[in-house]
Each structure stands twice: as C-alpha cells, then as structure tokens.
Specification:
heterodimer, A: about 260 residues, 5-stranded antiparallel beta sheet, about 25% helix, globular, B: about 210 residues, 2 domains, 9 helices
C-alpha cells in the first residue's frame, strides 16, 4: 500500500475507516448462538430460549467480569513468565493481526511520537530516539494467542514500570490505556503494567522492531494473551476508567491473564 | 440371562419397591455434570477450531457452542465453574460416603476381560443395577480420572504463568493442549458408549432420573 508510506502522523485514514467498519456488528462477529444445532438441544434441555439472544450474552458477560476479578486475585507480580534460551525462539515469528501483514501501519520513526496523557506528571511526548536512550531490558518469552497457538519471541525495550515512574505516573490509578496507529486499542490493569516483565518494546531479537511486530513501539506483556500486547502504539494514558479495547469490546475476556 | 432389550423387565413393578439404585446426590450431580459437559465440549470444539492441533480434525460449526471464538470462550469459562464446583461436590461425596470404594472396587483384570467378552456377545446381565460389572467399574473410574485430567490440563492452558508449575507437570503449554484434547476425546468416547447403553437398558436411565 504505497499510500500508507511516509504517513507523518502515524495514522492512516484509510485504515481507520476500514477499522471502524469492522467494529460494526456483523452476524459472524456476534457471540449469540443462533443457528447452532447444540443451541436447539440446550434450549430443549432448559425448556426455554435462554441461549439465544441478549439474555445469554449479558449473563456470559457478567461471568466474564467475575472471571476478571478472579484473575486479578490470581495475578502476582512476583510470578514471572518462564524465560527460554535463544535456541527456543520461533523462527520465523508469526505476524498476527485482524488485517494482513501488508496492511500493517508503516510508521515514520523520525516523526513518530509517543503521546502521554491522563494521570501523569510529565506529559511531554517521547520520540523514538529518546526512548532508545533509556536503560533497556530483554526477555525471551512465550507469546500465547487467544486462538490457542503460541510462539517464543525475543523482545528488548524499556521496563514499563521504570518508564511509568520516570514520567511521574500515578501508579495508584487503576488502568493504563494504549492507542495504536491502526485504530487498535487496549486497556490493562495497573498491577500488570507494573509487572517486572511488562516492557515498552523497541526491538525484536536485538534488532529494531520490524513493521510486522509493531514498529516503532509494542507493549510486551508475557502475563497476558497476545491481543493484550498492542503494537504500533501512539499514545499511553494512565486513568481510572476502563476504556475497553478493540477485541475486549467484541466479547473477549477483559483481563485475559496467563 | 440376556441383555435387557431381548428380555425386558416390567419397569413399573421394578421401580415401585426396588432398592434405591442412585441416591439423590448422585442424580443431581450427574445431570448438572451432563449439562456442564455439554457446554464445555460444545464450546471447546469451537475454540479448538480457531487453532486446530491436527489439520485433519475440525469440528462442524453446527455442533459448536458460541457462534465464534469470543462467544465460545465466554461459554467455556462460564461453564467451567459449574463443571468444577459440581465435580468437587461429586468426588467429595463419593469418597466421604464410601460409594466409590463400594461401587468401583475391586477391579480385577480377569473379570474385566470376562465381562468385555460377555458384553460383546450380548450376555452381560443388568438384572441388578445396584452392582456394577467389571467393565462399568473400569469405565466409570476411567472417566472420573479423565475428568480430573481435563480440569488440570485446562487450568494449565488457561494460566501457564500463574500456575506454571502445573503447566510444567504436563510438559509445558503446547503439550498441555494435546493432553486437554485427548482427555476430551476419551470423555466423548465414553459418552458415546454410555449413552448407547443407557438407551439399550432404559431402566438404568430411569434409575438415574427417579433413583429406582
């Protein structure tokens, strides 16, 4: 997509429109159980039509919120995701997104800035060069997709907890929200943001993050499912309200911890 | 004595004054488990299809619960509470009342072989439903064990970081997915036999509903 190149703002209008279109409810995207044979069987078992429609969906969402709380209780910042030797790295590491690889946002690293907002002392935006000068950490961990597959990758970058402290973020706030160049977004809980392995990632396998893996910045969270690891990050907000996210709003469990 | 289909016992008479075959707690936990299993397997098949372990095994969408992956996951992680809470109640009561010991043991290989052969020749008696034959003992105990394995392998897949010691017991995240799949397969195989036999010997189904 030549039109995507050299997009100075890092945001491509065409992609955003396409993304918005995908957010509109379409039959295959809904969690309703219409059309399934098993649905009929369950309806017969229960003697009513609870499995079809908004009732079952709202009950399932309530249980999903309950599961968020259970997972938050189970989460411990002392529990680290297993780390692996370099020989275990999956090559090639898969590209993954709701769009194809050639539709991934191609961002100009010289003009890109990380916007900082919300409950933060210093809201000065960060350039890529400034981020690269900060102390770096490295991890080789397993990326686990909500679909079930997994792959081991090598990520280098700034420890997010260090970065949050450096910019004077209120770490008693409940959430950190990330906005991405292609319109993607996700919200994570503060304990996970402060986990020692949560990383503001600038490199993959010790080389500048390729476009496929989220150039210029990805948030690597080895304690959460892949979709909670945003790529092409353009903004980070510390806040007390849950702003949801692209997949969370469509029914994926919000906490999605590992 | 031949199998029930060939020589039916009048159900009304047998049930009116016969011994209690299935106590209330067995019946209640059995049917809650049936519902939970139905939801777990239906949604699990849909989740499996999102990233199949075997390219030649995919489950038809007609049998799947949840319309698409997010819905299936919501069902799976809701029904798991029903499965686990009910399963803990069943196993606790089974151990505490001595029913497991009394009904499932002893299991002697010779009797298993004999009863398998008898069953295949249609000569296995179901006159006394209060006593399980050797094949039943083996299968019921086996499916309880498969149930335990499927819960722990499922926890390993769900929480491979917080419960990493458990995931390691299964040989890691990827291996736990295979264990979970094969535990499901053995439960589905059991269910196939179990449902067919319950239909062939309807008084056993009656006992699981009314107790006698």
């Amino acid at each position: 997509m030549p039109g995507l190149r050299k997009s100075s703002s890092g945001v491509d209008a065409k992609l955003l429109i396409k993304d918005a279109a995908k957010l509109l409810p379409e039959p295959s995207r809904r969690i309703f159980l219409r059309g399934a044979a098993s649905l009929g069987a369950l309806a017969m078992l229960t003697g009513c039509d609870i499995v079809d429609g908004p009732t079952s969906e709202s009950v399932l969402r309530v249980i999903s919120r309950f599961n968020d709380r259970v997972q938050a209780l189970l989460f411990s910042d002392a529990t680290l995701a297993p780390e692996y030797p370099e020989s275990a790295i999956t090559r090639p590491f898969p590209f993954n997104g709701y769009y194809s690889e050639d539709e991934a946002p191609d961002i100009d690293g010289d003009t890109w800035q990380l916007e900082i907002g919300g409950l933060v002392g210093n809201k000065k935006p960060w350039t890529l060069a400034e981020l690269n000068k900060l102390p770096q950490v490295s991890q080789i961990t397993r990326h686990i997709c909500v679909e079930g597959w997994s792959a081991i990758g090598s990520w280098q970058g700034v420890k997010l907890s260090d970065f949050l402290k450096m910019i004077g973020a209120d770490t008693t706030a409940k959430y950190v929200w990330f906005q991405c160049a292609e319109g993607y977004s996700t919200t994570i809980d503060m304990p996970t943001a402060l986990h020692p392995q949560t990383q503001l990632t600038l490199k993959f396998d010790n080389k500048t993050l390729p476009t496929a893996y989220g150039f210029p910045v990805k948030i690597r969270i080895p304690t959460k499912l892949g979709f909670k690891n945003p790529k092409y990050v353009t903004a980070m907000y510390v806040q007390n309200n849950d702003a949801g996210g692209y997949w969370e709003n469509q029914g994926y469990n919000w906490f999605s911890g590992l | 004595m031949t199998i029930e289909a060939a020589n039916p016992v009048p159900i009304a008479r047998a049930s009116a004054s016969g011994p209690l075959i299935q106590p209330r707690w067995v019946r209640v936990t059995h049917w809650i488990n049936a519902l939970a299993m139905f939801m777990m397997i239906g949604s699990g098949w849909q989740i499996y299809d999102a990233s199949p372990l075997f390219s030649f095994i995919r489950f038809p969408r007609e049998f799947a619960l949840g319309e698409w992956l997010a819905g299936a996951l919501l069902w799976h992680f809701a029904a798991m509470w029903l499965l686990v809470v009910n399963g803990i109640a069943y196993v606790t009561l089974g151990l505490a009342t001595g029913r497991f010991r009394q009904k499932f043991f002893p299991i002697r290989p010779r009797e298993v072989l004999h009863d398998v052969s008898a069953a295949l020749h249609g000569r296995l008696s179901h006159d006394d439903l209060t006593v399980y034959n050797a094949v039943q003992r083996l299968l019921y105990l086996g499916v309880i064990l498969a149930g335990i394995v499927i819960v722990f392998s499922g926890l390993s897949i769900w929480k491979p970081v917080q419960l990493k010691w458990l995931t390691a017991c299964f040989g890691g995240y990827d291996a736990a997915r295979y264990v979970h799949f094969f535990a499901m397969s053995s439960i589905v195989a059991f269910l196939t036999i179990h449902i067919v036999l319950a239909l062939i010997v309807p008084k056993s189904l009656r006992a699981m509903i009314f107790g006698r």
